[in-house]
Structures are given as structure tokens and as C-alpha cells.
Amino acid sequence: MTGAARFPLGPVVVTSNASLRLTTEEVLAALRRHAGGDWGNLPPEDTLANETALPHGGRLFSAYGQGAGRFWVITEADHSVTTVLLPADY
Q1: Dihedral of the alpha carbons of 33, 35, 38, 39, in degrees to the nearest 10
Q2: DSSP-assigned letter for residue 69
Q3: For the whole model, what pTM was predicted?
């Protein structure tokens, strides 16, 4: 983990496609990174959007893995839910 959680995740859901392709360990590691503010492999503008959203209540987006193993973690602006999904699920 990159440190203490910087925000609440709310309930966590994993899409069916993601649950078939990702291991439990991958999902848990990504959730720890996401909650700690390690946004993974994002372009600078998306990282900046997350850092701006933290104090102002916007959606938080992270991307982990590469190629066919790439997946996303998205926490809604109100922290009502965090979703783990594959790009094809969006």
C-alpha cells in the first residue's frame, strides 16, 4: 500500500468480465493503490484531474496493468461505489 487511504471507497463491485480475468490479489492490490492515491498508469492530465477531484468531490479513476491485462478502478464522486472493470466493460 502506498500509505493510508486518502478517501473512502464505499462498497466495491467487480464486473463479471473483470472477475473472470483478474486474480483476487490483483484486485486487492489495485484497490490499496487506488485508495492510497497511486493512480497507476495514467497520463498527467488524468492524474491532475484525480488530485483536483480529491478535495472537491469528483470521480476518481485509476488504471493498472498493461495490454490485455489492463483494468480500471473508478470511485464515484460521492464515494457511493468503487468499480473494478475492464476497459471493454465501460
Answers
A1: 100
A2: G
A3: 0.94
